[in-house]
Amino acid sequence: MAMALFKASTIPTLIFLLLSCSLIKISETQTPPTPAAGLSYTFYQNTCPRLESIIRQNLQTVFASDIGQAAGLLRLHFHDCFVQGCDGSVLLDGSASGPSEKDAPPNLTLRAQAFVIIENLRRLVHNACGSIVSCSDITAIAARDAVVLSGGPNYSIPLGRRDGLTFATRNVTLANLPPPFANTTVILNSLSQKGFTPTDVVALSGGHTIGISHCTSFTNRLYPSRDPTMDQTFFNNLRITCPTANSTNTTFMDIRSPNVFDNRYYVDLMNRQGLFTSDQDLYTDSRTRSIVTSFAINQTLFYQNFVSAMIKMSQLSVLTGTQGEIRTNCSRRNSNDLFVLPNMENDQEGKLASF
Ligand code: HEM
Protein backbone atom coordinates (compact mmCIF):
# COMPACT_ATOMS: atom_id res chain seq x y z
CA MET A 1 0.00 0.00 0.00
CA ALA A 2 2.59 2.54 1.17
CA MET A 3 4.76 1.60 -1.78
CA ALA A 4 2.08 2.99 -4.10
CA LEU A 5 3.16 6.42 -2.93
CA PHE A 6 6.61 5.99 -4.36
CA LYS A 7 7.82 5.85 -7.92
CA ALA A 8 9.01 2.41 -9.09
CA SER A 9 12.56 3.66 -9.58
CA THR A 10 12.84 4.52 -5.90
CA ILE A 11 11.89 1.07 -4.61
CA PRO A 12 15.43 -0.42 -4.60
CA THR A 13 16.55 2.59 -2.56
CA LEU A 14 13.67 2.02 -0.17
CA ILE A 15 14.61 -1.61 0.38
CA PHE A 16 18.20 -0.62 1.07
CA LEU A 17 17.02 2.02 3.49
CA LEU A 18 14.68 -0.30 5.30
CA LEU A 19 17.69 -2.49 6.02
CA SER A 20 19.90 0.40 7.03
CA CYS A 21 17.46 2.47 9.08
CA SER A 22 19.28 1.46 12.20
CA LEU A 23 22.20 3.60 11.04
CA ILE A 24 20.14 6.65 11.87
CA LYS A 25 20.35 7.42 15.52
CA ILE A 26 17.59 7.08 18.12
CA SER A 27 16.65 3.82 19.69
CA GLU A 28 13.08 2.64 20.06
CA THR A 29 12.90 3.32 23.80
CA GLN A 30 13.92 6.87 24.43
CA THR A 31 14.88 8.49 27.69
CA PRO A 32 14.33 12.25 27.70
CA PRO A 33 17.51 14.22 26.97
CA THR A 34 19.27 15.85 29.92
CA PRO A 35 17.99 19.43 30.19
CA ALA A 36 20.28 22.42 29.68
CA ALA A 37 21.68 23.92 32.89
CA GLY A 38 18.95 25.81 34.73
CA LEU A 39 16.03 24.08 32.98
CA SER A 40 14.10 21.08 34.24
CA TYR A 41 11.17 18.87 33.28
CA THR A 42 9.51 19.63 36.63
CA PHE A 43 10.26 23.35 36.86
CA TYR A 44 6.69 24.47 37.62
CA GLN A 45 5.53 21.27 39.30
CA ASN A 46 4.91 22.96 42.65
CA THR A 47 4.50 26.59 41.61
CA CYS A 48 2.14 26.20 38.65
CA PRO A 49 0.98 22.59 38.43
CA ARG A 50 -1.85 23.42 36.00
CA LEU A 51 0.40 25.27 33.55
CA GLU A 52 0.48 22.67 30.81
CA SER A 53 -3.20 21.73 31.09
CA ILE A 54 -4.25 25.40 30.88
CA ILE A 55 -2.29 25.81 27.65
CA ARG A 56 -3.39 22.48 26.16
CA GLN A 57 -7.08 23.14 26.87
CA ASN A 58 -7.02 26.66 25.49
CA LEU A 59 -5.24 25.59 22.32
CA GLN A 60 -7.71 22.77 21.80
CA THR A 61 -10.42 25.42 21.59
CA VAL A 62 -8.36 27.71 19.37
CA PHE A 63 -7.48 24.92 16.92
CA ALA A 64 -11.05 23.61 16.85
CA SER A 65 -12.04 26.82 15.08
CA ASP A 66 -8.80 27.24 13.06
CA ILE A 67 -6.24 24.43 12.90
CA GLY A 68 -4.00 26.68 10.79
CA GLN A 69 -3.01 28.50 13.98
CA ALA A 70 -1.05 25.40 15.02
CA ALA A 71 1.40 25.97 12.18
CA GLY A 72 1.73 29.62 13.13
CA LEU A 73 2.68 28.73 16.71
CA LEU A 74 5.19 26.08 15.68
CA ARG A 75 6.94 28.52 13.35
CA LEU A 76 6.90 31.27 16.00
CA HIS A 77 8.89 29.08 18.41
CA PHE A 78 11.41 28.23 15.67
CA HIS A 79 11.88 31.92 14.86
CA ASP A 80 12.25 32.74 18.57
CA CYS A 81 14.89 30.09 19.20
CA PHE A 82 17.04 30.60 16.11
CA VAL A 83 17.55 34.31 16.76
CA GLN A 84 19.34 35.05 20.03
CA GLY A 85 18.03 31.83 21.61
CA CYS A 86 14.60 30.90 23.02
CA ASP A 87 14.16 34.13 24.97
CA GLY A 88 10.85 35.44 23.67
CA SER A 89 12.71 38.17 21.77
CA VAL A 90 10.57 37.62 18.66
CA LEU A 91 7.51 38.65 20.70
CA LEU A 92 8.81 42.11 21.57
CA ASP A 93 7.45 45.21 19.90
CA GLY A 94 9.93 47.70 18.51
CA SER A 95 10.99 50.61 20.65
CA ALA A 96 12.88 53.86 20.36
CA SER A 97 16.01 51.72 20.23
CA GLY A 98 15.04 50.35 16.82
CA PRO A 99 12.67 48.15 14.83
CA SER A 100 11.85 44.81 16.44
CA GLU A 101 12.64 41.31 15.22
CA LYS A 102 9.01 41.21 14.09
CA ASP A 103 9.89 43.87 11.52
CA ALA A 104 12.72 41.83 9.98
CA PRO A 105 11.85 40.21 6.62
CA PRO A 106 11.70 36.54 7.72
CA ASN A 107 9.23 37.47 10.48
CA LEU A 108 6.84 39.50 8.34
CA THR A 109 5.03 36.28 7.40
CA LEU A 110 4.60 35.08 10.98
CA ARG A 111 0.88 34.98 11.73
CA ALA A 112 -0.30 38.06 13.63
CA GLN A 113 -2.75 35.82 15.48
CA ALA A 114 0.10 33.70 16.87
CA PHE A 115 1.27 36.67 18.95
CA VAL A 116 -2.30 37.23 20.19
CA ILE A 117 -2.65 33.57 21.18
CA ILE A 118 0.61 33.65 23.17
CA GLU A 119 -0.43 36.80 25.03
CA ASN A 120 -3.84 35.25 25.81
CA LEU A 121 -2.12 32.16 27.17
CA ARG A 122 0.19 34.32 29.27
CA ARG A 123 -2.79 36.11 30.79
CA LEU A 124 -4.55 32.83 31.61
CA VAL A 125 -1.41 31.31 33.13
CA HIS A 126 -0.49 34.41 35.13
CA ASN A 127 -4.06 34.69 36.41
CA ALA A 128 -3.81 31.12 37.68
CA CYS A 129 -0.27 31.13 39.05
CA GLY A 130 1.00 34.70 39.24
CA SER A 131 3.67 36.22 37.00
CA ILE A 132 6.11 33.36 37.32
CA VAL A 133 5.97 31.69 33.89
CA SER A 134 7.97 33.23 31.06
CA CYS A 135 6.62 34.07 27.62
CA SER A 136 9.44 31.96 26.14
CA ASP A 137 8.30 28.89 28.11
CA ILE A 138 4.69 29.51 27.03
CA THR A 139 5.82 29.76 23.40
CA ALA A 140 7.76 26.49 23.71
CA ILE A 141 4.80 24.64 25.26
CA ALA A 142 2.43 26.09 22.65
CA ALA A 143 4.68 24.84 19.83
CA ARG A 144 4.76 21.37 21.37
CA ASP A 145 0.97 21.39 21.71
CA ALA A 146 0.64 22.56 18.10
CA VAL A 147 2.44 19.38 17.07
CA VAL A 148 0.44 17.12 19.38
CA LEU A 149 -2.97 18.60 18.53
CA SER A 150 -2.22 18.31 14.80
CA GLY A 151 -1.73 14.56 15.23
CA GLY A 152 2.02 14.51 15.91
CA PRO A 153 4.04 13.01 18.78
CA ASN A 154 3.62 14.05 22.40
CA TYR A 155 6.74 14.81 24.41
CA SER A 156 7.96 16.68 27.48
CA ILE A 157 10.08 19.78 27.19
CA PRO A 158 12.46 21.20 29.77
CA LEU A 159 11.12 24.44 31.31
CA GLY A 160 12.51 27.39 33.23
CA ARG A 161 13.44 29.77 30.41
CA ARG A 162 13.48 33.48 31.23
CA ASP A 163 12.52 36.27 28.87
CA GLY A 164 15.18 38.39 27.21
CA LEU A 165 15.49 42.13 27.67
CA THR A 166 16.57 42.84 24.10
CA PHE A 167 15.62 41.92 20.58
CA ALA A 168 17.97 41.25 17.69
CA THR A 169 18.62 43.68 14.87
CA ARG A 170 17.33 43.13 11.39
CA ASN A 171 20.69 41.88 10.14
CA VAL A 172 21.17 39.46 13.03
CA THR A 173 17.66 38.12 12.41
CA LEU A 174 18.42 37.66 8.71
CA ALA A 175 21.73 35.97 9.45
CA ASN A 176 20.13 33.38 11.73
CA LEU A 177 17.04 32.38 9.74
CA PRO A 178 18.05 30.79 6.46
CA PRO A 179 15.98 31.79 3.42
CA PRO A 180 13.76 29.32 1.50
CA PHE A 181 15.91 29.65 -1.62
CA ALA A 182 18.96 28.29 0.25
CA ASN A 183 20.29 24.92 -0.86
CA THR A 184 21.23 22.03 1.42
CA THR A 185 24.86 23.14 1.73
CA VAL A 186 23.77 26.51 3.07
CA ILE A 187 21.14 24.98 5.38
CA LEU A 188 23.49 22.33 6.77
CA ASN A 189 26.24 24.89 7.37
CA SER A 190 23.88 27.35 8.99
CA LEU A 191 22.26 24.81 11.31
CA SER A 192 25.51 23.03 12.18
CA GLN A 193 26.63 26.31 13.75
CA LYS A 194 23.79 25.82 16.23
CA GLY A 195 24.75 22.21 16.89
CA PHE A 196 22.31 20.45 14.56
CA THR A 197 23.32 17.31 12.66
CA PRO A 198 22.10 16.59 9.11
CA THR A 199 19.51 14.22 10.63
CA ASP A 200 18.30 17.02 12.91
CA VAL A 201 18.06 19.36 9.90
CA VAL A 202 15.94 16.94 7.88
CA ALA A 203 13.75 16.21 10.92
CA LEU A 204 13.20 19.89 11.75
CA SER A 205 12.32 20.63 8.13
CA GLY A 206 9.46 18.19 8.69
CA GLY A 207 7.79 21.09 10.48
CA HIS A 208 6.66 21.95 6.95
CA THR A 209 4.18 19.08 7.12
CA ILE A 210 1.66 21.67 8.37
CA GLY A 211 0.93 25.24 7.39
CA ILE A 212 0.97 27.55 4.45
CA SER A 213 3.38 29.63 2.44
CA HIS A 214 3.07 32.78 0.41
CA CYS A 215 3.84 32.48 -3.29
CA THR A 216 6.71 34.92 -2.88
CA SER A 217 8.62 32.36 -0.83
CA PHE A 218 8.98 30.00 -3.79
CA THR A 219 8.36 31.97 -6.99
CA ASN A 220 12.08 31.66 -7.72
CA ARG A 221 11.16 28.06 -8.65
CA LEU A 222 8.24 29.06 -10.91
CA TYR A 223 9.48 32.13 -12.75
CA PRO A 224 10.83 32.72 -15.29
CA SER A 225 10.67 28.95 -15.80
CA ARG A 226 10.18 25.70 -13.87
CA ASP A 227 12.91 24.62 -11.49
CA PRO A 228 13.86 21.31 -13.13
CA THR A 229 13.76 19.54 -9.77
CA MET A 230 10.03 20.34 -9.47
CA ASP A 231 7.39 17.88 -10.67
CA GLN A 232 5.65 19.17 -13.81
CA THR A 233 2.06 18.76 -12.58
CA PHE A 234 2.91 20.30 -9.23
CA PHE A 235 4.48 23.20 -11.13
CA ASN A 236 1.41 23.63 -13.37
CA ASN A 237 -0.86 23.82 -10.32
CA LEU A 238 1.41 26.25 -8.49
CA ARG A 239 1.47 28.53 -11.54
CA ILE A 240 -2.34 28.69 -11.28
CA THR A 241 -2.13 29.46 -7.55
CA CYS A 242 0.62 32.00 -8.13
CA PRO A 243 -0.24 33.60 -11.50
CA THR A 244 2.50 36.20 -11.24
CA ALA A 245 5.93 36.21 -9.62
CA ASN A 246 4.81 38.70 -6.98
CA SER A 247 1.38 37.21 -6.25
CA THR A 248 0.26 37.61 -2.63
CA ASN A 249 -1.61 34.28 -2.66
CA THR A 250 -0.82 31.37 -0.35
CA THR A 251 -0.75 27.60 -0.67
CA PHE A 252 -0.47 24.60 1.64
CA MET A 253 3.05 23.34 2.16
CA ASP A 254 2.23 19.62 2.33
CA ILE A 255 -0.20 18.86 -0.47
CA ARG A 256 -0.98 15.36 0.81
CA SER A 257 -2.16 16.23 4.35
CA PRO A 258 -1.80 19.98 4.92
CA ASN A 259 -3.11 20.11 8.48
CA VAL A 260 -1.84 16.82 9.87
CA PHE A 261 1.52 16.46 11.55
CA ASP A 262 2.65 13.31 9.74
CA ASN A 263 5.53 12.19 7.51
CA ARG A 264 3.84 13.02 4.19
CA TYR A 265 6.10 16.03 3.70
CA TYR A 266 8.92 13.57 2.99
CA VAL A 267 6.72 11.68 0.50
CA ASP A 268 6.14 15.05 -1.19
CA LEU A 269 9.90 15.54 -1.47
CA MET A 270 10.38 12.08 -2.98
CA ASN A 271 7.78 12.99 -5.58
CA ARG A 272 9.48 16.33 -6.26
CA GLN A 273 6.57 18.21 -4.74
CA GLY A 274 8.48 20.13 -2.09
CA LEU A 275 7.68 23.83 -2.07
CA PHE A 276 10.98 25.54 -1.29
CA THR A 277 14.46 24.99 -2.65
CA SER A 278 15.47 24.39 0.99
CA ASP A 279 12.94 21.54 1.18
CA GLN A 280 13.38 19.89 -2.21
CA ASP A 281 17.16 20.04 -2.19
CA LEU A 282 17.19 17.78 0.89
CA TYR A 283 16.11 15.01 -1.48
CA THR A 284 18.40 16.09 -4.33
CA ASP A 285 21.51 16.28 -2.15
CA SER A 286 23.21 12.93 -1.58
CA ARG A 287 24.07 13.80 2.03
CA THR A 288 20.42 14.08 3.09
CA ARG A 289 18.51 12.03 0.51
CA SER A 290 18.62 8.76 2.45
CA ILE A 291 17.41 10.53 5.60
CA VAL A 292 14.43 11.95 3.70
CA THR A 293 13.59 8.50 2.37
CA SER A 294 13.91 6.86 5.77
CA PHE A 295 11.44 9.35 7.27
CA ALA A 296 9.07 8.90 4.30
CA ILE A 297 8.84 5.17 4.93
CA ASN A 298 8.95 5.23 8.73
CA GLN A 299 6.84 7.83 10.53
CA THR A 300 7.94 6.61 13.95
CA LEU A 301 11.55 7.24 13.01
CA PHE A 302 10.59 10.75 11.86
CA TYR A 303 8.73 11.45 15.10
CA GLN A 304 11.64 10.26 17.23
CA ASN A 305 14.14 12.41 15.41
CA PHE A 306 11.80 15.40 15.27
CA VAL A 307 11.23 15.27 19.03
CA SER A 308 14.94 15.00 19.69
CA ALA A 309 15.73 17.96 17.40
CA MET A 310 12.86 20.05 18.79
CA ILE A 311 14.03 19.56 22.37
CA LYS A 312 17.49 20.60 21.24
CA MET A 313 16.08 23.64 19.43
CA SER A 314 13.92 24.62 22.41
CA GLN A 315 17.02 24.94 24.58
CA LEU A 316 19.19 27.09 22.30
CA SER A 317 20.94 29.83 24.32
CA VAL A 318 18.26 29.95 26.99
CA LEU A 319 18.31 32.50 29.80
CA THR A 320 17.87 30.93 33.25
CA GLY A 321 18.10 31.68 36.97
CA THR A 322 18.34 35.42 37.49
CA GLN A 323 19.03 36.26 33.85
CA GLY A 324 16.41 38.24 31.94
CA GLU A 325 12.97 38.54 33.50
CA ILE A 326 9.45 37.12 33.51
CA ARG A 327 7.53 39.53 31.30
CA THR A 328 4.08 40.64 32.42
CA ASN A 329 3.22 41.43 28.82
CA CYS A 330 4.89 39.30 26.16
CA SER A 331 5.33 42.16 23.69
CA ARG A 332 7.08 44.50 26.16
CA ARG A 333 9.94 44.24 28.61
CA ASN A 334 8.80 45.06 32.11
CA SER A 335 10.60 48.36 32.43
CA ASN A 336 10.47 49.96 29.06
CA ASP A 337 12.30 53.12 30.00
CA LEU A 338 15.76 51.70 29.39
CA PHE A 339 17.07 51.05 25.90
CA VAL A 340 19.70 48.39 26.00
CA LEU A 341 19.74 47.30 22.39
CA PRO A 342 23.44 47.58 21.58
CA ASN A 343 23.37 47.83 17.85
CA MET A 344 20.92 50.08 16.07
CA GLU A 345 20.53 49.48 12.39
CA ASN A 346 18.08 50.88 9.97
CA ASP A 347 18.72 49.20 6.67
CA GLN A 348 15.36 48.49 5.13
CA GLU A 349 16.31 46.95 1.84
CA GLY A 350 15.13 43.42 2.64
CA LYS A 351 11.91 42.40 1.03
CA LEU A 352 8.97 40.23 1.92
CA ALA A 353 9.42 38.51 -1.42
CA SER A 354 12.30 36.45 -0.06
CA PHE A 355 10.33 35.00 2.81
C1 HEM B 1 15.47 24.97 7.72
C2 HEM B 1 15.16 26.14 7.32
C3 HEM B 1 13.79 26.70 7.15
C4 HEM B 1 13.40 27.54 6.17
C5 HEM B 1 14.26 28.08 5.05
C6 HEM B 1 12.01 27.83 6.37
C7 HEM B 1 11.28 28.69 5.60
C8 HEM B 1 9.92 28.89 5.71
C9 HEM B 1 9.14 29.75 4.88
C10 HEM B 1 9.70 30.61 3.76
C11 HEM B 1 7.84 29.62 5.24
C12 HEM B 1 6.62 30.28 4.59
C13 HEM B 1 6.51 31.73 4.93
C14 HEM B 1 5.42 32.36 4.10
O1 HEM B 1 5.67 32.62 2.92
O2 HEM B 1 4.31 32.56 4.61
C15 HEM B 1 7.79 28.69 6.33
C16 HEM B 1 6.64 28.31 6.97
C17 HEM B 1 6.61 27.46 8.04
N1 HEM B 1 7.70 26.91 8.67
FE1 HEM B 1 9.62 26.99 8.04
N2 HEM B 1 11.56 27.15 7.46
C18 HEM B 1 12.60 26.44 7.97
C19 HEM B 1 12.58 25.66 9.12
C20 HEM B 1 11.47 25.44 9.88
C21 HEM B 1 11.46 24.76 11.15
C22 HEM B 1 12.71 24.24 11.85
C23 HEM B 1 10.18 24.70 11.57
C24 HEM B 1 9.62 24.09 12.83
C25 HEM B 1 10.12 23.03 13.39
C26 HEM B 1 9.38 25.36 10.57
C27 HEM B 1 8.01 25.45 10.61
C28 HEM B 1 7.24 26.14 9.70
C29 HEM B 1 5.79 26.15 9.72
C30 HEM B 1 4.90 25.38 10.67
C31 HEM B 1 5.40 26.99 8.69
C32 HEM B 1 3.95 27.36 8.31
C33 HEM B 1 3.55 28.61 9.09
C34 HEM B 1 2.11 29.04 8.89
O3 HEM B 1 1.31 28.34 8.28
O4 HEM B 1 1.79 30.12 9.42
N3 HEM B 1 10.18 25.81 9.57
N4 HEM B 1 9.06 28.27 6.60
Structure write-up:
It is a single chain. This protein is mainly alpha-helical and 355 residues long. The chain has helices at 11-20, 51-65, 68-82, 112-129, 135-149, 170-176, 184-192, 198-205, 232-241, 264-270, 277-284, 289-297, 299-313; strands at residues 212-214, 250-252. A two-stranded antiparallel ribbon has the order 1-2. Helix 1 packs across helix 12. The longest helix is centred in the middle third of the chain and has 18 residues, at 112-129. The chain is globular. Mean pLDDT is 90; it is low at 1-5, 14-28 and 338-355. The structure holds protoporphyrin IX containing FE.
Outline:
By secondary structure, the chain is mainly α.
Say how many strands there are. 2
Helix content: 40-55%
Bound ligands, each once: protoporphyrin IX containing FE
User: What is the radius of gyration?
Assistant: 20 Å
Q: How would you sum up the global shape? A: globular
Q: What's the number of structural domains? A: 1
Low-confidence stretches: 1-5, 14-28, 338-355
At the third CATH level, what is the topology name? Peroxidase, domain 1
Q: What's the rounded overall pLDDT mean?
A: 90
Tell me the CATH architecture: Orthogonal Bundle
For the termini, the CA-CA separation is 37 Å
Number of H/I helices: 13
Secondary-structure element pattern, one letter each: HHHHHHHHEHEHHHH
Determine the strand fraction and express it as a percent band. under 5%
Summing up helix and strand content along with how strands pair, one would put the structural category as: mainly alpha
Give, in spatial order, the strands making up the sheet with the most strands: 1-2
CATH level 1 class label: Mainly Alpha
Largest sheet: 2 strands, antiparallel
